[in-house]
Amino acid sequence: MRPARKRRLYLVMLILVGAGAFVSLAMWGLGEYKMYFYKPSEVVRGETPPGRAFKIGGLVKEGSVKRDGATVEFTVTDTLADVVIRYTGSLPDLFREGQGIVADGRLDANGVFEATNVLAKHDENYMPPEVAQALQESGAMPPHEMARPDGVGGPGKPLGKPLGTQ
Description:
By secondary structure, the protein is of the alpha+beta class. The protein has two domains: 1-31; 37-145, CATH 2.40.50.140. It has three helices and seven strands, in the order αβαββββββα.
């Protein structure tokens, strides 16, 4: 092999190794920020990662919302288990009892979920897909009432025909 060609091969190999190392470090670093979704029944069974942030979703239990200044405490349920959530800040305008929510945060030492962010459904035809699936799996929502992830259909509403069909 000629020296120039050998040098070019070493350069290409060095670039590939560097790119591989960069991608590996990026994936490892981003892994620290992943948040998994758990249902209240999974949280109660202790299936959540200890000390790590995660998402929880379900329905806000009727009569559970208690406000103390800027702090709100409420219970979220999947009809199999309940988890108390505490959130300090401004809740979404559509937040109310009986509605589906998804909250980000972590459990404290007392088993209360300290939320850093609370998301509520945005209209009557949509429920967060994770919440809808959790409710369907728990038997609280029959399959024919499950909202599609794209927001079409919903409780009591037909899904209609797919686009492009007559």
